[in-house]
Amino acid sequence: MALAHRRSPSLLSNCLAVARNYPGATAAVTAAGVLVATAIVNRQLAKKAQRDNPPQGQFVDIDGVRLHYVERGDGRPLVLFHGNGSMIQDFESSGLIDLAADNYRVIVFDRPGFGHSLRPRNVVWTAEAQADLFMKAFDQLNVQKAIVLGHSWGASVAVALATRHPSFVEALVLASGYYFPTARFDVAALSAPAIPGLGDIFSATISPIASRLLWPAMLRKMFGPRSVPEKFAGFPKEMAVRPSQIRAGAAETALMIPAAFASAKTYNELAMPTIILAGENDRVIDIDEQSGRLHDEVKQSKFYRIAGAGHMIQQSSTDHLMAAIDEAAAETLH
Prior knowledge:
The protein is α/β, with parallel strands linked by helices.
């Protein structure tokens, strides 16, 4: 007598049964799978961005930190510090490096975590910590004194360098900076990728996608009321939306208000020529609460409001920044 053949349930049937009986667990597994796949894609896109935008400068290793920098021109040293989320290509695409290199020895760093510079996670990269790091880099580059320009978060680093190492900074040019603590309701959301553990998940998965989607709106806010200049097309967006750079930017956002608290106590120590610039229509920072107030506290400073300009004055008003650099240089000769 032939025995009846019994079919074993298929793998698909088993999976469907599990899905029906444990819908919550199934959703969690599916979500985890999507996150893993997204992280893999983002990692590959980050690698491609780095291949497409190789380092254009040189590297210096300081205390285990590999810093990427570009040096161009001859003359008196001029140091440029970029803002949060940015990199050397900001000043490169603006044309400021080429303009300044006609008369200055221009040195521009990718700050820790941005561009091709590393950002070790065993250090809280405050403006002061970065200033001390750069001071050691300048020693290696045989730079004893320099005119220092900082844009946005880079202005905080420039001020920290001037207060901690005043003999190095001949003059300051501060553009679109945030100098005094204020209530900022956007800080919590923008700082999420910096949260230990959870932030790593955000920066590896969701944040790069969100950054790409929000990129046009972000540019409108940063450049407004002016339109984004064509030359900014040279800025590598894909480098800016890498998980590592998003995490670095979020960390600096989280430090922004505490950094202003700490720095505000030191402004009376600034004795060098200081030129402050801000776009009158800055949509990111209240220039009266920030640049205007700093001008009041730093008695030897000069303050220039750039009509019709927004936060990105290094791009939209490059000639004003170049004129401020030349003015600062002239004042150090008096």
